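Bug report

Summary: structure tokens for F420-non-reducing hydrogenase iron-sulfur subunit D domain-containing protein differ between web form and batch submission.
Environment: batch mode, default settings.
Steps: 1) Submit the sequence below via batch. 2) Compare with the web form result.

Sequence submitted:
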Amino acid sequence: MTQKLLDIAGIGRERLHFAWVSSAEAQRFVQIATEVNDSIKSLGRFDSEMFDMQLSAAERTLEGETLRWLVGKEVKITTKGDVYGRKWEVKKYESVLYDMLEREYHKNLIYLAIKQDCTNVRQISKKTGVDVLRISYLLADMERTSMVAFTGMEDSKPVFAAL
């Protein structure tokens, strides 16, 4: 899931590697370490300052209650069923999980852009790269959940503030 989030953020999943290695698998460890090292070298140096806002939004997303709740319910819902007794296919559940991951990431990205003085939809879109229509939709949800507040109109454009 973290690799998926890095893709959504534009950083790229290839910058994060996971592998299970037993202490008895020294040769496999050497092979994996070499592959990771070669992969990172081929990608070049990561400029964290260039992705500061994206990394902060990703961190906020991973710390969020919604994501933790959904991840925590996956095994129960895919093996025993939801509150109606319906078992979900793993792919269907993961699809919902990834859609929510992207939505929460975009909400956090928008929130951070507003905190950096982007107060209207077009400024937020320019700063984040998120589509204007999606920002408008998410701002309505963010206002309902008290993440942001509509503060008025400026040159016929709605203006928002982070709470």
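Above is the batch result. After comparison, the two runs are identical; trailing whitespace caused the diff. The mean pLDDT is 95. Residues 1-43 form one domain.
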